[in-house]
Amino acid sequence: MLLTWIDEVAHEPLVLEPADRRVEVEVNTWWLSAAEEDGGSLSVAEVVAAFERTAAAIRERLHERAFAGVATFSVWHDEQAGQLRCSTGSVSPDALPFGGAYVASGHLAPIVGRFLADSERSRLAWSDPDDVPGLSGRAEPEVAPLAVWVSGVGASK
Q1: Do residues 24 and 58 lie in contact, with contact meaning Cβ atoms separated by under 8 Å?
Q2: Left if phi > 0, otherwise alpha if psi is -120 to 50, otherwise beta: which for 39?
Q3: pLDDT of 126 above 50
Q4: pTM above 0.70, yes or no
Q5: 147 pairs with which residues across the strands?
Q6: Which of 62, 97, 138, 154 is 20 to 30 A from 11 via CA?
Q7: Alpha-carbon distance 105 to 121, whole Å?
């Protein structure tokens, strides 16, 4: 199902409104989770290929619309929610609307790999709450900047 949902993103409504970034975020941001039926059967390569197809389809849609501005399709792993998220916006990769630190990257496989590994772990039952990372009283590690895969989809990349 995850691969189907990723492919469907390319055909969903798409709003590029540089003067109103809030509308872009609301309309163009998608939350994607692995479904039960995916059950660990997905490979990193399959998921990466699906996102690359989606970026190419969005690029083609914008070309057909004669959109002349900058636009970026981005994918990141929201570890807290256990989801992959993706969005398209009329911004360059260095101006994505994240509230915290992030690192724009051309490498999607590590992001997808962490998501798939986390999806598999979330299916495991914890026998002792002290075994759950972050609940055992240990200090939390420093938070690294969010890794975000970016693909230029506008006429100006």
Answers
A1: no
A2: left
A3: no
A4: yes
A5: 103
A6: 97
A7: 25
**Inter-axis angle of helices 44-64 and 2-9, nearest 10:** 20
Q: Which of 60, 65, 22, 82 lies closest to 73 in space, CA to CA?
A: 60
In 3D space, the residue among 35, 14, 44 whose CA is nearest the CA of residue 153 turns out to be 14
Rounded Cα distance, 75 and 89, in Å:
12
User: Cα–Cα distance between 28 and 18 in angstroms, integer?
Assistant: 13
Q: Residue 12 corresponds to which tokens in the numbers above? A: 């969903």
Which tokens in the block code for residue 97?
């609307």
Contact 125, 51 (CB under 8 A): no
* pLDDT recorded at residue 90: 97
Contact call for residues 143 and 149 (beta carbons, < 8 A): no
- Amino acid type, 15: V
